[in-house]
Amino acid sequence: MPSLTQILSEQLTAGPLPFAQVMELALYHPEHGYYGAGPRRIGRKGDFFTSVSVGPLFGKLLAMQAIQEWQTLGETEDFTIIEQGAHDGQLAEDVLSALEGRPLRYLIVEPNARYREVQAKRLGDRVQWVESLAALQSGPLHAFFLCNELPDAFPVHLVRWSGTQWQELFVTAAFQFVPGEFSCAELAEETKQLPTDLAPGHTLEINLAMLAWIRELANAAFHGTIFIADYGLDAEEFHTDSRASGTIRRYKQHHLDERILDDLGESDLTTHINFTRLIDEATRHGLVQRDYDLQGRLLGRLAMPWLKSLEGQPLDAATMRQFNSLTHPAFMGRSFRCLILEKPAH
Ligand SMILES: C[S@@+](CC[C@H](N)C(=O)[O-])C[C@H]1O[C@@H](n2cnc3c(N)ncnc32)[C@H](O)[C@@H]1O
Description:
Blueprint: H1 4-12, E1 17-18, H2 19-28, H3 57-72, E2 80-84, H4 90-98, E3 105-109, H5 113-123, E4 128-130, E5 142-148, E6 157-161, E7 166-171, E8 177-180, H6 185-191, E9 203-206, H7 208-218, E10 223-233, E11 249-252, E12 255-257, E13 268-270, E14 273-274, H8 275-284, E15 288-294, H9 295-309, H10 317-327, E16 336-343
Parallel strand pairs: 2-3, 2-5, 3-4, 5-10, 10-14
Antiparallel strand pairs: 1-7, 6-7, 6-9, 7-8, 10-16, 11-12, 11-13, 15-16
Helix pairs in contact: 3-4, 3-9, 7-8
The structure holds S-adenosylmethionine.
C-alpha cells in the first residue's frame, strides 16, 4: 500500500499545494492520516501527554464546573455536556464518573466513524453522538461545551513575511516550501491584520479552521458555557524573534521538532492557537468572555470550592500528583491556557 508521502508526491507533480491541504491529509487522511484510522495512544506510551492522560482529575474538575452550570440554569432536564475531540473517550469517562449519578446528558461531536466505535465500546449508552457542530443548531437548548486540545489539531495555513509582503507557503513535489499568492481571499484578509515590522522570513500559522469552528459553535442552539483548553499564545507573543519559525511542530514518541514535512501521517502535527484571534472572533459572533487565563491559575480557581470542601483532609498522593501536573507552571500550568465563554441561546 502506498504511503501518504507517495500519494502526495503524485498529487504534487501537478503543482505545489497550500500547506493547509498537506496538513489536512497528514492528520485526517482516512487510512494514512495520523488521526485517520482510529485513536492512537496518548500518554507515556504514545507520542505526547495531554491533561486527560495525566489522570481523572481534569475530568473531575470539568464535571464539577458542568454541575455548577446545570444548577445555574435551573437543573433543566435537557442540560447536556457536549464534548468535541473526544478521542478514545477517556475524558468522557472521567467526567461521567465524577457526575456521581446526576442526570446530565453527554453528547460527543465526532465526525470519524472509527472513533465513534471506540468511544461506544468504552462508554456504551451513557453518551450520544452527532457527526458535526451543524447538528447542534436544532438542540440541545442548555449545555456545557468542552474540548481539550482540539483547535491545535486543525490544519493551518502558513504565511511568511518577505520583508515587503506576507505570502502563503506551498509544498512542492520535492517536499520543500515555496512562497506564492494566497490560495483564498479569507487568508489574504487575515494577513491584513498582521504586523509588517517583522524580520524577513518570520513565519506564522493562520488557523482559518479554528475561526470557522468558533463561528459554527456560536450558531448552536444552546444557552450555556464553552470551555476550551489548549496550548496557545496571545497575538503579540507570535511576533517575537524567538517565534520567527512559527509554532508548528511535529511530535513523535515525546520528541518534538520542526521537520514538519518528514514522515507525513506518522507523527502528530500541531500548532499553538492564537487566543487573541479566537476571543476576537468569538465575541464578534455573540459569545462573551467570562474567563481566560493560564491553565494553572484557571483550574486552581475551578478547584477551589472542592479543595475547601475537603476541610483540611489531605489529597491522596495520586490526586496530588495530577493536580501538580495540571497546574504547576513547570508542567502544564503555564503552557496551556483555558478560555471560558458564555453563550446566549441562538
Ligand atoms: C490532540 S488530540 C486531543 C485528544 C483529547 N481531547 C485529549 O485531550 O486527550 C486532538 C483530537 O481532536 C480530534 N479532532 C480533530 N478535528 C476534529 C473535529 N472537527 N471534530 C471532532 N474531533 C476532532 C482528533 O481526532 C483528535 O482525537
